[in-house]
Write a structure and sequence with these properties.
Largest sheet: 4 strands, parallel
Strand order of the largest sheet: 2-1-3-4
Oligomer: single chain
Strand content: 5-15%
Distance between the termini: 51 Å
Shape: globular
Order of helices and strands: HHEHEHEHEH
């Protein structure tokens, strides 16, 4: 570990460093990849946001605090969708910040194709992509 890597950083610098390690994906490209069966969309937003704003049809909902356990292909608590380390996972949070940190964590587990959605759910919705409205809306 270098002296530089032990220096405290702010969250903006941390995000910059993390995002430099992989290529993020835009909403239209993510939608096309999911439709083509080339990516698994994983929604890590907490329940209140999903209830307020709705869901992306076909997205796998995994709470952020369970993400690594559910997507580790060798884990005892993995989901059936966690088929291997070559799985292309697109992590979605509300605005595209927490998802960057989550994608980096998946990289540490060996999911080398993990990425996150630029702008998160809000960008997906603003792009006019499919959203299932919240119950009662």
């Amino acid at each position: 570990m270098t002296a530089e890597s032990r220096q405290p950083v702010g969250v903006d610098e941390l995000l910059e460093r993390v995002r430099a390690g992989y290529e993020r994906i835009e909403p239209l490209d993510a939608h096309a990849a999911v439709r083509a069966g080339e990516a698994l969309l994983v929604d890590i937003r907490y329940a209140a946001l999903r209830e307020r704003d709705g869901l992306i049809p076909g997205a796998l909902v995994v709470e952020r605090n369970e993400l690594e356990w559910r997507l580790d292909p060798h884990g005892s608590h993995r989901l059936p969708e966690a088929t291997g380390h070559d799985l292309r996972v697109v992590v979605v949070c509300n605005e595209g910040y927490a998802s960057s940190l989550a994608a980096e964590s998946l990289h540490r587990l060996g999911l080398r194709r993990a990425t996150d959605l630029v702008g998160g759910f809000q960008a997906w919705k603003e792009a006019g992509l499919p959203v299932t409205p919240p119950a009662g809306a």
